[in-house]
Amino acid sequence: MSGISESIRLNIVLPIAEWLNGTCASYWFKKISEMSTWPKEKVISWQEERLRGFVKHAYEHTVYYRRLFDSLGLTYKDIQCAEDLKKLPIITKKEIRAHFDELVPDNIESIPHRFCKTGGTTGEPMAYLTDENVWGFITASKIYSWKKSGYRYGDKFAALGSASLFQKKASLKRRIYDWIRQEKAMNSMNMSDSLCCSYLERMRKEHIHYIYGYASSVFLLARYARDHQIDVSFVKGVFTTSENLTDIYRAVIESTFHCRVMDSYGAKDAGITAFEIIRGKYPISYDVIAEVVEDLGTGEGTLVSTCFLNEAFPLIRYDFGDQACIDFEDTLFNTPVLTKILGRTSDVIKLENGNVLTSPGYTILMNSFDVSAYRIIQVSGHEVKMQIQPCKDKWDKDQEINLTKEMQRFVGEGCVFTLECVDEFKTLDNGKAGFFYNN
Q: What is the mean pLDDT of the chain?
């Protein structure tokens, strides 16, 4: 750890910095640590007490929810528990954009908050406000969860990402925070071989033992180290985020770094976070009440979140565009658990014939073909296109015929599938791959 012990950073330095900056992660870290020991019934009781206050606030201080409740013949008193939320309709990004001003509470000046925008993964970025309590809770949840892997607060870590993971022109507040937690930003907009080489050398020289970043970026770094037989024994842990951690990504990362990979899931606009504490299990953060609607079968469907800490911009039953599966009966944790993350709605293709294609399914299929990278595009409700970057020395006409045949079978009758070869894929503007590697 860099000079100062974890205990001093967590219990003295961080609280002082937060007092100066008006943030609250240290408070929520202690609260999460305490709540992790509670029985599920006590957690639910705490959540529903906060929910009742949150709904009352939304009703009394926003034009949008006052009008909505009145139109349904309801008052805030009709929402007493999580089950009661079903009395209210789901709110979408389209509605939020149309009614932004009406969702901002009339007492916003008394609520510490930040102005934010979504990354635009599923289309146009959406503006929203986030309560400092939400930011603090999400930050605290990351600290608490990372510590489960052996990480100590203050251990240096490389952050492979773009604007969504770090800020190019960070404020003094952000620079102080990054110094306390020892984040080392490394832009992954173009993970070329030379950049991978320089990042690994920097990590070795500066004794950076943990890696945090987009799943595809960490995969590229691991693949480079593997292919060039670089000693990366200094890496003690990897934390992936922002993209689906495919089986192939995970296998290459684990076999190269020989350490634990803790995947994470999150949507800041929905206030929801979930870290893979146990392989395949992502306990959902205590600050939200999550639902699954429009079930696709076997418990999979659209995630809906009510983050009752975000009084700066109340969103009740918010559909933020993600698909997943939740186990509400898991006995290992005192909160519901995400067991399958299908990804953004844009990664889940629903066709007019009723067939549903998800990114994990592509990964399994593509293991059988000599393709280094691929992208799935839904052209319309009845047409799907796959772009592939074939391994030129191995790809042949038979593979092209077989892949087309298999994908057409998945797409189904009444729908059209086309296959297109490309020389290479470019990274999206937000630094994410937007496609899947296959080696």
A: 87
pLDDT of 195: 87
Please give the Cα distance from 84 to 81 (Å, whole number): 5
Helix 25-35 × helix 14-21 angle, to 10°: 130
Query: What is the SS3 assignment for 281?
Result: strand
Whether the Cβ atoms of residue 138 and residue 267 lie closer than 8 Å to each other: no
Quickly state the pLDDT bin for 439 (edges 50, 70, 90): very low
**H or E segment and range at residue 194:** helix 193-205
CA gap 393, 370 in Å, rounded: 9
CA distance 116 to 135: 11
The string of pLDDT tens digits covering residues 315-347 is: 999 999 888 899 999 999 999 999 988 765 445
- Assess contact for 317 and 85: CB atoms under 8 A: yes
3-state secondary structure 371-382: EEEEEEEEEECC
Q: Which domains does the chain have, with CATH numbers?
A: 1-341 (3.40.50.12780), 351-437 (3.30.300)
CA nearest to 265, candidates 131, 145, 123, 116 = 145
3-state DSSP call for residue 331? Answer: coil
Pairing of strands 383-390, 371-380: antiparallel
pLDDT in tens, 112-128: 999 998 865 444 678 99
User: How far is residue 264's CA from residue 247's CA, in Å, rounded to a whole number?
Assistant: 15
Check if the beta carbon of residue 364 is closer than 8 Å to that of residue 436.
no
DSSP state of 11: I
| CA gap 30, 53 in Å, rounded | 22
Per the CB < 8 A criterion, the answer to whether 131 and 23 are in contact is no
Mean predicted confidence (pLDDT) in 397-405: 93
Amino acid at 55: V
For residue 2, what are its two tokens? 């860099």
Return the SS3 of 188. Answer: coil
Rounded CA separation 435/388 (Å) = 10
